[in-house]
Amino acid sequence: MKLIYVASPYAGNIDRNIVFAKDACRFVMNEGHAFFAPHLLYPHVLDDSDPSDRTFAITMGKNFLAKCDELWVFGETISAGMMDEINEAKRCHKPIRYVSKQEMEVIEGPLAKGHSLCAMRI
User: What confidence tens digit (pLDDT) does each residue in 11-60 have?
Assistant: First the structure.
């Protein structure tokens, strides 16, 4: 099982983007892998509007990315934060996979039938 770093938009329509990020994490699980999505974790602990908290969160994310097997970029919109993650993955020579919304909707992986939390919402 690989550990996948999930990159998807967060800022803007945060409620919609959180739902999308959760769907991205389910997609990773359906593909048979574990996920790490810092934008679903760090905003619950740190204040994204505080520059020092934001900088600390970005630093932690980059350190965690170095320990992941791959970076998967979800959706067609690439935010500035996502671009930083892509550049960091390139710097660390991590494989990068781009996953479109359309691909997320049509693929159900091997775990989808095995656990209720892994079922894709189509």
Answer: 889 999 999 999 999 999 999 999 999 999 999 999 988 999 989 999 99
CA distances from 9 to 1, 19, 78, 120 (A): 25, 11, 7, 19
The number of folded domains in the chain is 1
What are residue 3's DSSP bridge partners? Answer: 34
Model pTM score:
0.85
Strands, DSSP E only, in the chain? 3-7, 34-36, 70-74, 96-99
Q: 36: domain CATH number?
A: 3.40.50.450
Domain of residue 74, residue span: 3-118
